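Continued from yesterday's entry.
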Amino acid sequence: MYYEFTCKNSQCISGYKRCDGHYDCDDRSDEANCTVSCTEEQFSCDNHTRCIYKTLLCDGITNCKDLSDELNCTCHKDQFRCTDGLCVHESQWCDNIFDCADGSDEPADCRQCVVSCAPNQIECDNHCLSGQFICDGVRHCSDGKDESSCKCDEARCDDGMCIMYSQLCDRKIDCADESDEIYCTNRSCDSKNHLIACDDHCIPESWRCDGKLNCIDKSDELSCSKYAVFNFFLK
């Protein structure tokens, strides 16, 4: 059966919206003087405006407008308690986002916070970085620690970040410390890093006999017969 509730300003709304914890009347009269009667399977929010199932208590999601369904809970091992009693995940501590209603997860001295990360995470700029972002070739931490000490299949920057051999001495900065471009002189060409001499600098070995002139003296495309078969399979 459909019924309506008349707001004090004469606005009509669905009767089911009366005392549902949301303001539907422009004058907010639909949430005034609300009292609800909850069943044994339900929990009454402290402001007595809404009933929720007890299975929703302390699940990390606020269902009561007054947060009472998430207060005074026993926090899990991977959670910490806000000053107001709310439990939030430890990764939300000092992440520059206010997750506690009272803001206690973002204290003024966040830079001095001690972060406790899971075994598959690392501390990164005062928050925990998931393992999936470690050694993925992208610098996520300001100090580059997520890309340092990684096992490189190809070339390694001086700061520990991994790049491809083809990115060495290609006149494009790929290492944050620019080390992929600062050693590119004839005397520093390193065959172990797949570099060859070209004029007064180095180029990737893969550019040798690729059909494109990269050196002014054309040395990268001279005497290419021994590379013919190799480059055929590369193309």
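--- second protein ---
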Amino acid sequence: MGQQKVGQQKMGQKFERMIPIMVVVCATILPLSRAGAQAVSLQEQLVAQYKVAKMGSDTSGYSVTEEGTLLAIQKGGLLGVPYSDTSVQNNKYENGTVKPPNALLSKGIGFGMKKFGKEQTTKLFAKGDKVYPTKIDVNLDKDTVTLGIVACDKCNNTDPPTANKANVVFQFPKGSLAKASAGDVEDTIGQLLSISDDSQKDAGGGQQGAQGGQDQAQQDQPAAQQPAQPAAAAPAPAQADPVSIEVGMSPDQVQSALGKPDKIVKLPTKQIYYYKDMKVTFKDGKVADVQ
């Protein structure tokens, strides 16, 4: 019996020693799980905002097979390469400044490619160039959001088409990305890559084209088959003259023009009528000010 009590005491002591370890493990795992959930949520929201383009290739090279969200470059200086180039050019955007890839690194990649009989060509994107997103990657540990982009050659009138690509790494202050909303991140991205007005115009043009097609189809129908036209709307009644309140009018004249006020404030030296969108001040029984 005594041995059993000793054994229970030892087990209790061992469990007490494990409690701090369990607390530390939980404290470590829970923030990581929340951070992972935040990263997934932010990633999903950005992917919903920026539709990525799909690429394909044939004997003529790479091209966009499915268009994504059209973006307009707001600041020049992004360095890219043809889509067929296996190297990756990581441009950095931090504190409102574009930082292209290290020049020595780019030259080193080009030198290495020459050994395999290939030339590396680079493209410096200019302000106003149109591009599509090709990938979106959120990294909370590094406080970065990376957008892969590819040029919209038909938008930029590039001939022959080259489908130049680049990576843009948006660097956020340390520890801020985990707390940032999708809207905050989109605002930062928009400083460099804003959603182009052309995409909205294209959508509007499509609607106008559809309406135009319907109108033309109606015109082509025989008169008997055309839908009955609605009767002309009756002319709108003439609008009454606007109410005029002038300095010097009496309270009765004001009420006759505007009706009974919503509120009346009487002060020692003045009286104020409050209406829905107007304030009339009387002094000595006469209108002195209207706001």
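The longest strand covers residues 130-139. The radius of gyration is 35 Å. Will compare against the first tomorrow.
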